[in-house]
Write a structure and sequence with these properties.
The chain has about 130 residues and is of the alpha+beta class. The protein is about 35% helix and about 30% strand. The chain has four helices and five strands. The strands form two sheets. A three-stranded mixed sheet has the order 1-2-3. The chain has a two-stranded antiparallel ribbon with strand order 4-5. The longest helix has 14 residues, at about 35-50. The two termini are about 30 Å apart.
Length: about 130
């Protein structure tokens, strides 16, 4: 259901006899739906599964270009749409650096460009320490 909503992460907390779900997304409007219909449906489904009352919070990711999961999803969708992989990677790196990232490393692997032999290519810009 939330595939097109650019969901970065979902945090589930379980205080006494209830459940609190926080959805971090770059596009909160898609998760919430018209007049909050979709979020209410989601709350009902979660409450039915858990068997306790559920509360759903939506948190907006202000800079999706700096969120690793969202950058990866963006590159994935571009590759599925047959965009050239080097262009997709370079654009992701440039967008992240332009928005103030200290460093970024992007790596794609597989049959790049439809080649028969699989390989790995990566781009790095800025500082990317090994201890992260």
């Amino acid at each position: 259901e939330l595939a097109k909503a650019s969901v970065s992460r979902i945090v589930i907390e379980r205080p006494a006899k209830s459940i609190r779900v926080t959805i971090h997304t770059a596009r909160p409007g898609i998760v919430i739906g018209k007049k909050g219909e979709d979020v209410e449906k989601l709350r009902k489904v979660v409450a039915d599964i858990a068997g306790v009352p559920a509360q759903i919070n939506i948190a907006e990711v202000r800079k999706p270009e700096l969120d690793a999961k969202l950058v990866a999803d963006s590159i994935t969708s571009q590759l599925e749409r047959r965009v050239m992989f080097r262009r997709a990677m370079k654009r992701a790196v440039q967008n992240a650096m332009r928005l103030g990232a200290k460093g970024i490393k992007v790596e794609v692997s597989g049959r790049l460009g439809g080649a028969e032999i699989a390989r790995t290519e990566w781009y790095r810009e800025g500082r990317v320490p090994l201890h992260t």
